[in-house]
Design goal:
Blueprint (H helix, E strand, L loop, with lengths): L4 H21 L4 E2 H9 L8 H13 L3 E8 L2 E9 L1 H25 L5
């Protein structure tokens, strides 16, 4: 990455990360560390676990995800996050909007007009 790229990524993450998490939870419940590992796998979507848990708490307070506790055979109980109906609605709206937004940005970057 070039100097300055991390600032750009921070701004892009801020607008999209919560919806990326909702998409990850669409169809399966995941626990926090698993979400962190998946998001951090490419070093693009998540800069550190310290930002993930406050975001998950916000999503829960907004009613977009719900949590359940499950026993673990390898350690303490784990908090699993799953999508609520409101979360599915928010994700569907983001998916519709994202495609239009992405296409407009791509067109502008390629020298065309959005």
């Amino acid at each position: 990455m070039e100097p300055g790229d991390s600032v750009i990524l921070t701004h892009l993450r801020r607008g999209a990360l919560e919806h990326v998490i909702l998409a990850m939870l669409d169809g399966e419940a995941l626990y926090g560390l698993d979400i962190a590992r998946r998001l951090g796998a490419d070093d693009v979507l998540l800069s550190g676990e310290g930002t993930l848990y406050p975001l998950l708490a916000r999503l829960r307070k907004q009613g977009l995800v719900e949590t359940t506790w499950a026993e673990s055979t390898t350690g303490p109980p784990r908090r699993y996050y799953s999508l609520t109906d409101d979360g599915r609605t928010a994700l569907a709206a983001f998916r519709r909007t994202w495609t239009t937004f992405r296409d407009a940005v791509d067109a502008a970057l390629e020298g065309g007009h959005p």
